[in-house]
Design brief:
Blueprint lengths: L12 E7 L6 H9 L6 E7 L6 H11 L6 E5 L6 H11 L4 E4 L5 E2 L3 H12 L3 E9 L5 E6 L4 E2 L1 H4 L11 E3 L16 H10 L5 E12 L9 H15 L4 H19 L1
Parallel strand pairs: 1-2, 1-4, 2-3, 6-10
Antiparallel strand pairs: 4-9, 5-10, 6-7, 6-9, 8-10
Helix pairs in contact: 7-8
């Protein structure tokens, strides 16, 4: 494995985590970052005014952590939502690389090390990896979502295989100014498509490096809402006609069903 000291001097990874009602999960998420075999990172936790004690818990963890100096806490002045919180974190990021991690998901220890090596070897600016569904405690369930080697804009329209907590951008290739999520449902997919529309391709590393915690009731579990959100993306972000949108929606629904079998 490549050690952090073998990476370029400007290899700092800024990890952006929006935090809202995450007191129950956030410690395990932070611990998974602290356990990384690649050590040149900063963890930016953006508190979105949840008022559930998440901020106080984060401060306790930071105070006691040997990596406390690498943990940064940003507080929104008011509740802004996940998209704007991530954007706030990106604005404050100091790293060349931007990585996203949700407050209830976890990384495997070699996640950063292996994915950064993959990006350097391929010379790519937008990468994502396979992931495994976890239960409410983030314990792996054996249900894995594999990813394609390469995904361009056209092929992305019928699949939502790019999972937020697996994504890393190299801002030398994808400018930081482009890494801004719109304030709309499925803001992450909207960002991926917006970037892919510029001609950039996303490259997939087909190895599980992230655990996607799935509580029993979650936004993604509401199938009707998912369909409405995806239709809105196709029409308003991708600019598809209704016929094109319907075709992509059928392909998306088929692949989404396969992922859950």
């Amino acid at each position: 494995m490549m050690k952090s000291e073998e990476m370029p001097n400007n290899a700092l990874v800024s990890i952006i985590v929006p935090v809202y009602h995450a007191k129950e999960y956030i410690e395990k998420t932070i611990r998974s970052v602290e356990a990384q075999t690649f050590h040149d990172w900063e963890l930016i936790l953006v508190d979105d005014c949840g008022g559930d004690g998440s901020l106080e818990r984060i401060r306790e963890i930071k105070e006691a952590s040997p990596c406390g100096g690498q943990i940064r806490i940003i507080q929104n002045e008011k509740n802004l939502g996940a998209a704007m919180s991530r954007n706030h974190g990106v604005e404050k990021a100091l790293g060349r690389y931007i990585a996203f991690l949700d407050a209830d998901d976890c990384w495997l220890p070699t996640k950063l090390e292996e994915q950064l090596l993959f990006m350097r070897q391929k010379g790519v600016g937008f990468s994502f990896t396979s992931y495994e569904f976890g239960d409410e405690n983030a314990a792996a369930t054996g249900r894995v979502v594999h990813v394609p080697h390469k995904l361009d804009f056209r092929h992305a329209l019928s699949r939502t295989v790019i999972f937020t907590s697996t994504v890393i951008f190299d801002t030398k290739i994808v400018p930081k100014a482009q890494i801004r999520m719109p304030d709309m449902p499925s803001e992450d997919t909207a960002l991926w498509w917006t970037i892919l529309k510029t001609g950039v391709c996303a490259y997939g590393m087909d190895k599980v490096l992230t655990i996607y915690r799935r509580p029993r009731r979650s936004l993604s579990s509401d199938k009707r809402s998912s369909v409405r959100r995806f239709w809105n993306l196709l029409v308003n972000v991708a600019g598809c006609s209704r016929i094109e949108a319907a075709r992509h929606l059928i392909g998306w629904a088929f692949r989404a069903t396969l992922r859950r079998i």
